[in-house]
Write a structure and sequence with these properties.
By secondary structure, the chain is an all-alpha fold. Helices cover about 75% and strands about 0% of the residues. It contains 5 helices and no strands. Helix 2 runs antiparallel to helix 3 and helix 4 packs antiparallel against helix 5. The radius of gyration is 22 Å and the shape is flat. The N and C termini lie far apart (about 65 Å).
Length: about 170
Amino acid sequence: METQIKYLWGAAAGLLSLMAPIRPLVVCAVIFISIDFITGVAASRKRARGVGEKWGFESRRAWDTVTKLTFVMAGIVMSWLLDTYIVHFLNLRLANLFTGFVCGVEFWSYLENAAEISGHPVFLWLRKFMKTRFDKEFESGLDKASAEAGDKSTVTMPGKDADGSESV
C-alpha cells in the first residue's frame, strides 16, 4: 500500500511539474476570481441592506465560485496543452488569451461591485466608460465581419433590428 501511495504522489508531482509554465496564469485567474467573489459578497450585502432585507451568506453562491474556478483552471490547462502540444507551430498563446478573457470579465464584475459598494464617481464613470467602449467595439467588430463576408446580409446585435433600432 505504501508503494502505491508513493507512485500516486510521484504521478501527481509529475503532472504538476508539467503545468509549471502556466503557474502565473493560474495565480492571476485565482486572484481576479477571489477579488470578484469578495466584492460580490460585499455588494450583495449592501444591496440587501438598501432594500431593508436581512442578508445572509449563502454557501450555494460560494460553491458557484468554486465551480467557476474549477472550469477556469481546466480551461487554462486545456488551452495551454492545445497551444503547446497540438498547434505549437501557430504560437497562438491560447492560455494567455483565455486567462486574459477570464480576468477581463472578472475585472468588469469588480468594477460593477465597486461602483455599487462605494457609489464613488470614479467607479461609476469607469463602469459607464467600459460599457460604452465595449458596445462601440462590439458593434464595430460586427460591422467589419459583415463587410468581410461580402454579402448583402447584415449582422445585428441581439435585441436590435438591422437599422439599429430596438426590437421587441
